[in-house]
Amino acid sequence: MFELTVESSFAAGHQLRGYGGKCERLHGHNWKVQVHVLAGRLNEIDLAIDFHDLKKYLCECIAPLDHSFLNEVFPFTEKNPSSENIAKWIYDNMRRKLPEDVHLSAITVWESENASATYYED
Asked: Taking a C-beta distance cutoff of 8 angstroms, is the pair 117, 108 a contact?
């Protein structure tokens, strides 16, 4: 089994509704996103998936979030734009872009250097 990882970043602001603390006020982060994929075999040129393609898919997924107020981006108009929900949203969007033989293992979203949330399916 092969595991590949790429990462990218975006800048965005948000407010955590119902939080009851300072994160309920408008604030922003320079978010970092890591994508982990698994592949059981290599293609005809010995790649699981081209890093270029994997990065392109990630950039397409996070483009709507970059330099935005996340609370105005669906589904965060209805759900809190927490790191957990952002990780799942990116996971769902990335999964639709990948070829069948490449499995999306996990998405990790870092809101700071020392705080992250990871989403993966059982």
From this structure: yes
